[in-house]
């Protein structure tokens, strides 16, 4: 071997590529993927990027980053969690250039854990938004029957569909990502770009690289060494030679057929026949030969590629001449509109059948549903000549390998109804390519074609039942064979099937040379008049054919592939000038003619089987027995210490300075003379490669001469120079707006997922404020472009003032459509509709800003107005309303101004509308000292005597910035409006009453609080009684809230904000132990709930401080720690008698009495036990002696919070588990009486010891501990 690997004739691989998630740009929705955003976020796709490729470029194969990026990950990034299947998937693809040359790609897609907190947070935000939207859809009472099913998100088929479950449970099952308990994984792709297709070898290379990444042990060498080896030190085997090179964990063998054999093909044809069956394969083959539109349809990219490559390979000696995109990226779906023949592959989502796929053209379409083993044929498709005998011969070949030719056939003509759904046989389709059903079932199928085939078999005396199946590869294979048995079998099946197909064309066109019309003029004239000239005597050829062949042959002779084949024949007079396929075909034709000694005019319909299979098979076996060359083994590279570091589960960062350049000397490539390939072989291969490329390009140029339409030059359409300059300004502003909104959304989503999962977090970070300020600057520049007369420092605020002035002068100008008045207060159980909706008014929001004395300048007012509009999700709507006053805009702006370019203005407003997808608190968190009015409504139950309530209620609203103190609520209205300094985002509400009057029992459904400036409305669910002698006897409760979604009929406001964690509802929080309220959770579910609650707290403290949410929500909110421990204590509690309600607190008090008496008796085991008992009893006494009127459930909540704060919970669980009181009050099957489960619970609770938990004052108010 020499150092000549830098030439295109010698390198096995041109590039190594890594595609995946660019954490710097973050999550970018794949706008061109055609994804339905009603799908759950884990089912959506996001933009992927080429992260790296080595080397940077090679001159003979320029790197096409766009094509490689699209085809490595055709539907962009995919996300999974730890419960989803994350098996690596291999697929190959092909890049066809404009000159017809091809490059092959082989990609392995696997999943890596997402380490970016921003990405995880963005996914959490998307899930909250999606869940909120689906929750609203499923709870819409006006939805007709069946609509819920139609709107349900698409779910992988591996997950069961819950038809009878409650809507919220269904949503939780469908949308399973929770940042506090799930691990997020994202797809990453490693890829090899090669000049020739060696999918089996490349698959092994990539899988061994992935195995090295996923293995717990580091690879023998850094992966850079193996990648460098495959790029620069593994040569491309010449024709007729075999090569062995080293992967990470084992040798890899590939071979290349000689110039006298069929062209290189390394895809498994047996798999195609397994998927479709022999008859369907032949029908598809016929459609391809007749250059019909062919659309392959499958969930699996590799199936699309395998079927497409197999069909085109079986066409030998002809080649597909039209659009060829085996894997159609989602961004190129418009290709399906092409009014030309094509062979394309479209990925299915695994849900929709053929009837739901809307295709532009179907009259001449062959639709192949690979996964469902189904082919839908065009009407009037002619039969391939000798179809029955052909099927019989292929079937015998397959049976000789122990394979069935049946597949799972669902064929259809053009008018047949599509049979949707998977075949039952797909269940056993564990691995593509194996079939176990016998041939008898295929032959006995009620099918006219098969019946005729069966009759033919009987006439010929052939018994398929007596066919000898080939011995197992391991028994007849030479022990020296150096490739996998499975791979060798694939090659054997391939060569058998391909030789049978090639023999058909050899028989069919044995005399074709006689009918080729050689040009009488010179070559240049022939090329010039090519389209008007005939190159084949079709009439004479057809007149010599058997009549059954005519329907097919008459159409086939008119195809582009046949014309190109004849053109190639005309251009190549000498045998050395012929391209490979033509040379091989002609040699076979010559052999047939010599053996049969036939004259050109003698034709017969007698079917002649293939006879040269054994020779071709022997050549393959000889190459894998005797390896012609062993490539240089991977070795350590000249890398710095520390480079190539191994981290399990993560593909390493490769060293570009090492991989971007090949060897400069022959240090690693010197080999002894016997090991070198002959220079003549290399030179011949190189010349053959170049000649074929040039010849093919020459033929294509000749055929397309005079038919290519030139694109008009843009300069011919350009306006005047001034207008053009302004137009560039407009385009630049629009582009900047698009980029800024995208950037802000990604940044916001990265934070908001944390906020909404753990309570609202302060977003006064420097980066977000900088982005919002940058947006405000952009708005000012847009409003400044093309101004007639500048007025004030802020063009935006000036425009707003002009608008306000015009509306105030107009009678009724401040009514609709400026805002929406409340018509009638609707009484509803939802709570949010218990208060009138706010006015939606541009001018009202201006007045809010004008009333803030702290803001002095016009620029400051404009920015505050923008912030308020963004927080209210009204920015796009307000600006649209502002610009709808066309006369005012014309008065203020020149014609070329951005605001007077209608199309760009609409796009600008559309980009701003995307801010409605997330929650901003950019006004609330910046203006922290302003006075804000709040409106509070207490919603009580009217069904259970709420109107007879005589006590005096009160509330205390708390936010991130402050709390209000006790506010008395009028008993007759149960609502209050008050003004106080900005509370920030609201977190909790304390509510209660003074227990006065004759009827002081109050069932409260919820409390609703609204910020009257921003419109943010919070709902604090309760669902509990307040009063002595009812429920748990509590006179006050602490409620955790959720941010409600504003309901609007306007499409611009259709934003579904995900709810925060909230107070557990009545049915969940009613922890009275009675026969009617036994918990239904089993021990496994309870353990999972505790684990998730603890995990949420752990993750809370592992996040940066500015990204942490409210700890109160993790402790007391829905599915928080308090709720989880309630489930522990409720499990197995003995049923009370005489309908007496027993609470967890009752158990704790009895245990306290026991411990105190045990201490007095000095019957204590050890000092540790005494210390823990004293702590427990001290906390119990402190809580019982508090002046607050909290009930038993409230006391339990307080004990859990204090125990978590002081790291005592695990000690208390151990005490209670050993307490005799527990043995008396629990069933034998209770969790508290299962020692192993209790020990597991203790270990989980011990994880809280390392965290410093600080409690909100509202949780421990009145407890002096």
Describe the structure.
- This is DENN domain-containing protein 5A.
- Residues 766-928, 1112-1258 form the RUN domain.
- By secondary structure, the protein is of the alpha+beta class.
- It folds into 6 domains: 11-220, no CATH class; 269-385 and 400-465, Rossmann fold; 494-628, no CATH class; 721-915, Up-down Bundle (Methane Monooxygenase Hydroxylase, Chain G, domain 1), CATH 1.20.58; 928-1063, Sandwich (Lipoxygenase-1), CATH 2.60.60.20; 1066-1265, Up-down Bundle (Methane Monooxygenase Hydroxylase, Chain G, domain 1), CATH 1.20.58.900.
- The protein has 41 helices and 24 strands.
- The strands form 5 sheets. Strands 1, 2, 3, 4, 5 and 6 form a 6-stranded antiparallel sheet that branches. Strands 10-11-9-12-13-14 form a 6-stranded mixed sheet, with helices on one face. A 5-stranded antiparallel sheet has the order 19-16-21-22-24.
- A hairpin with a 5-residue loop joins β21 (1002-1011) and β22 (1017-1026).
- The chain starts with 14 loop residues before the first strand and ends in a 5-residue tail after the last helix.
- 41% of the residues are buried.
Contiguous low-pLDDT stretches (5 residues minimum) are: 1-8, 142-174, 413-446, 462-479, 598-602, 666-699, 701-719, 752-766, 815-830, 1048-1059, 1065-1078
Strand tally, please? 24
How would you sum up the major sheet?
6 strands, antiparallel
- In one word, what is the shape? globular
| Oligomerization state | single chain
Q: What share of the residues lie within helices?
A: 25-40%
Number of helices: 41
- For the residues shown, what is the average pLDDT? 74
Classify the beta-strand content into a percent band: 5-15%
Alpha carbon gyration radius: 38 Å
Into how many domains do the coordinates divide? 6
**How does the helix and strand content classify structurally?**
alpha+beta
Query: Ends: how far apart?
Result: 82 Å
């Amino acid at each position: 071997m020499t150092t000549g690997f830098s030439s295109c004739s010698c390198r096995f691989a041109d590039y190594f590529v890594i595609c995946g998630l660019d954490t710097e740009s973050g999550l970018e929705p794949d706008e061109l993927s055609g994804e339905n955003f009603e799908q759950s976020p884990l089912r959506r796709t996001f933009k992927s990027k080429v992260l790296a490729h080595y080397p940077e470029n090679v001159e003979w194969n320029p790197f096409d980053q766009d094509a490689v990026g699209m085809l490595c990950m055709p539907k962009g990034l995919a996300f999974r969690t730890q419960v989803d299947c994350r098996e690596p998937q291999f697929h190959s693809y092909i890049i066809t250039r404009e000159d017809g040359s091809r490059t092959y790609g082989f990609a392995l897609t696997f999943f890596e854990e997402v380490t970016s907190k921003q990405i995880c947070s963005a996914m959490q935000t998307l899930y909250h938004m999606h869940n909120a939207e689906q929750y609203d859809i499923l709870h819409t009472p006006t939805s007709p029957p069946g609509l819920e099913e139609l709107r349900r998100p698409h779910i992988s088929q591996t997950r069961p569909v819950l038809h009878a479950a409650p809507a919220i449970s269904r949503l939780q099952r469908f949308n399973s990502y929770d940042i506090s308990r799930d691990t997020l994984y994202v797809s990453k792709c490693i890829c090899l770009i090669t000049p020739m297709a060696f999918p089996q070898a490349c698959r092994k290379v990539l899988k061994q690289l992935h195995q090295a990444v996923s293995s717990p042990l580091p690879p023998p060498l850094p992966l850079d060494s193996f990648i460098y080896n495959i790029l620069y030190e593994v040569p491309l085997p010449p024709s007729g030679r075999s090569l062995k090179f080293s992967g990470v964990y084992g040798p890899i063998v590939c071979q290349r057929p000689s110039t006298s054999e069929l062209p290189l093909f390394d895809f498994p044809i047996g798999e195609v026949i397994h998927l479709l069956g022999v008859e369907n394969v032949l029908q598809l083959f016929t459609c391809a030969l007749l250059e019909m539109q062919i659309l392959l349809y499958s969930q699996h990219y590799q199936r699309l590629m395998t079927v497409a490559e197999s069909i085109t390979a079986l066409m030998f000696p002809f080649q597909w001449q039209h659009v060829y995109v085996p894997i159609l990226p989602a961004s190129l779906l418009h290709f399906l509109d092409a009014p030309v023949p094509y062979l394309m592959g479209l990925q299915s989502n695994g849900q929709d059948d053929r009837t739901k796929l809307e295709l532009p053209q179907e009259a001449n379409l062959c639709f192949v549903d690979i996964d469902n083993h189904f082919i839908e044929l065009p009407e009037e498709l002619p039969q391939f000549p000798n179809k029955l005998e052909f099927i019989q011969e292929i079937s015998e070949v397959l049976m000789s390998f122990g394979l069935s030719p049946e597949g799972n056939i669902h064929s259809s003509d053009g008018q047949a109804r599509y049979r949707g759904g998977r075949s039952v046989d797909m269940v056993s389709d564990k691995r593509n390519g194996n079939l176990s059903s016998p041939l008898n079932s295929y032959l006995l199928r009620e099918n006219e074609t098969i019946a005729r085939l069966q009759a033919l078999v009987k006439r010929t005396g052939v018994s398929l039942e007596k066919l000898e199946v080939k011995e197992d590869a391991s028994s007849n294979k030479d022990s020296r064979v150096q490739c996998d048995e499975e791979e060798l079998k694939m090659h054997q099946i391939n060569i058998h099937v391909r030789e049978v197909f090639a023999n058909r064309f050899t028989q069919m066109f044995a005399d074709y040379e006689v009918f080729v019309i050689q040009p009488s003029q010179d070559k240049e004239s022939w090329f010039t008049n090519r389209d008007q000239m005939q190159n084949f005597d079709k009439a004479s050829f057809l007149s010599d054919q058997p009549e059954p062949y005519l329907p097919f042959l008459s159409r086939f002779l008119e195809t582009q592939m046949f014309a190109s084949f004849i053109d190639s024949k005309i251009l190549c007079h000498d045998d050395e000038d012929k391209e490979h396929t033509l040379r091989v075909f002609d040699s076979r034709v010559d052999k047939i003619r010599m053996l049969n000694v036939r004259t050109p005019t003698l034709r017969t319909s007698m079917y002649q089987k293939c006879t040269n299979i054994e020779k071709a098979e022997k050549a393959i076996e000889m190459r894998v027995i005797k390896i012609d060359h062993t490539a240089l083994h991977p070795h350590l590279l000249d890398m710095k210490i520390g480079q190539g570091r191994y981290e399990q589960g993560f593909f390493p960062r490769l060293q570009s300075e090492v991989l971007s350049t090949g060897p400069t000397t022959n240090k690693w490539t010197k080999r002894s003379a016997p090991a070198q390939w002959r220079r003549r072989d290399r030179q011949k291969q190189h010349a053959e490669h170049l000649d074929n490329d040039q010849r093919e390009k020459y033929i294509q140029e000749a055929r397309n001469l005079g038919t290519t339409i030139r694109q008009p030059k843009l300069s011919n359409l350009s306006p005047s120079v001034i207008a053009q300059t302004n137009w560039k300004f407009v385009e630049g502003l629009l582009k900047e707006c698009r980029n800024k909104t995208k950037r802000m959304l990604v940044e916001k989503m990265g934070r908001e997922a944390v906020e909404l999962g753990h309570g609202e977090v302060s977003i006064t970070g420097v980066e977000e404020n900088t982005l919002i300020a940058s947006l405000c600057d952009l708005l000012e520049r847009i409003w400044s472009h093309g101004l007639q007369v500048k007025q004030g420092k802020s063009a935006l605020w000036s425009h707003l003032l002009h608008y306000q002035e015009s509306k105030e002068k107009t009678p009724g100008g401040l009514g609709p459509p400026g805002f929406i008045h409340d018509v009638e207060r609707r009484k509803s159980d939802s709570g949010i509709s218990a208060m009138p909706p706010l006015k939606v008014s541009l001018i009202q929001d201006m007045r809010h800003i004008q009333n803030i004395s702290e803001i002095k300048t016009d620029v400051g007012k404009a920015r505050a107005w923008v912030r308020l509009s963004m927080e209210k999700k009204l920015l796009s709507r307000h600006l649209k309303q502002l610009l709808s006053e066309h006369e005012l805009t014309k008065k203020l702006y020149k014609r070329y101004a951005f605001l007077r370019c209608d199309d760009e203005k609409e796009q600008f407003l559309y980009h701003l509308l995307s801010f409605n997808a997330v929650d901003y608190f950019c006004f609330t968190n910046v203006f922290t000292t302003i006075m804000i009015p709040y409106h509070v409504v207490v919603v009580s139950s009217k069904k259970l005597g709420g109107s007879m309530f005589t006590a005096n209620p009160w509330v205390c609203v708390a936010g991130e910035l402050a709390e209000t103190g006790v506010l008395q609520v009028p008993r007759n209205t149960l609502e209050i409006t008050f003004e106080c300094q900005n509370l920030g985002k609201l977190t909790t509400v304390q509510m209660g009453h003074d227990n006065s009057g004759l009827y002081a029992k109050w069932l409260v459904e919820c409390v609703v609080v609204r910020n009257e400036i921003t419109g943010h409305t919070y709902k604090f669910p309760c669902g509990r009684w307040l009063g002595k002698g009812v429920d748990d006897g509590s006179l006050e409760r602490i409620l955790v809230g959720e941010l409600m979604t504003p309901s609007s009929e306007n499409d611009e406001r259709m934003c579904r904000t995900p709810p925060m964690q909230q107070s557990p509802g009545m049915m969940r929080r009613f922890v009275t132990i009675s026969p009617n309220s036994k918990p239904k959770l089993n021990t496994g579910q309870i353990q999972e709930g505790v684990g998730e609650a603890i995990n949420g707290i752990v993750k809370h403290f592992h996040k940066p401080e500015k990204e942490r949410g409210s700890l109160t929500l993790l402790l007391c909110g829905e599915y928080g720690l308090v709720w989880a421990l309630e489930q522990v204590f409720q499990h197995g509690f003995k049923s009370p008698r005489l309908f007496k309600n027993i609470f967890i607190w009752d158990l704790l008090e009895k245990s306290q009495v026991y411990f105190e008496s045990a201490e007095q008796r000095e019957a204590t085991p050890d000092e540790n036990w005494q210390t823990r008992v004293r702590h427990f009893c001290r906390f119990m006494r402190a809580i019982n002696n508090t002046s607050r009127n909290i009930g038993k459930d409230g006391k339990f909540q307080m004990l859990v919070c204090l125990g978590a704060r002081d790291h005592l919970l695990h000690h208390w669980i151990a005490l209670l588990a050993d307490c005799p009181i527990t043995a008396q009050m629990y069933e034998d099957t209770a969790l508290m009486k299962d020692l192993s489960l209790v020990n597991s619970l203790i270990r989980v609770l011990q994880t809280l010891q390392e965290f410093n938990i600080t409690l909100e004052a509202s949780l421990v108010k009145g407890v002096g501990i």
